[in-house]
Amino acid sequence: MPPLTPGAYLKMRRCAAGLSVADVAAKIATAPRLAEHARAELIDLIEADAAPASFETIVVLSNVYWFDFDVLATLVRAALGADLKLPRICRICGCSDRDPCVQDVALVGQAVCEWVNVDLCSSCATPGAYA
Ligand SMILES: [Zn+2]
Ligand SMILES: [Zn+2]
User: Fold this and answer.
1) What pLDDT digit, counting tens, does each position of 52-102 carry?
2) 131 CA to middle of ligand 2, Å?
3) Distant-in-sequence contacts of 10-13, Cβ < 8 A, 24+ apart
4) Which pTM does this prediction carry?
5) I need a surface site. Which of 26, 81, 103, 124 has the fewest CB within 10 A?
6) Which ligand gives the minimal distance to the CA of 130?
7) Cα(48)–Cα(57) distance, integer angstroms
8) From ligand 2's centre to the CA of 57, what distance in Å?
9) Residue 57 Cα to ligand 1 middle (Å)
10) Cα(121) to centroid of ligand 1, in Å?
């Protein structure tokens, strides 16, 4: 399987957060300010790896949904041709050891997902178990 691209990773994390491109476009403010539809186009291009995301855009996106900067940086290095060990990432939600799914459990506190397969986490293996 080819390594996950940076854009595909961002898309997975957005989807895992239950947000549409339009949701994210409505929540981010870019500098210089773009119209909302232009922001949606930019997100589409970034997720398709068709346009580079500025560092500011990455930071702004991270305010809207959670993803891991180190995982993203590793995927960018891989996309640039670096031969390195890729992080383990769930093929459905994009979670990783650095950025696991978190379940709020009454009384117990928080539980995080575990690996049930090389690229599948317990949260995705049991849909609905985690928020
Ligand atoms: Zn998962
Ligand atoms: Zn997970």
Assistant:
1) 889 989 999 999 999 999 999 999 999 999 999 999 999 999 999 999 998
2) 10
3) 10/46, 10/47, 10/53, 10/61, 10/67, 10/72, 11/47, 12/89, 12/92, 12/93, 12/94, 13/65, 13/66, 13/67, 13/93, 13/94, 13/99
4) 0.87
5) 81
6) 2
7) 15
8) 25
9) 25
10) 4
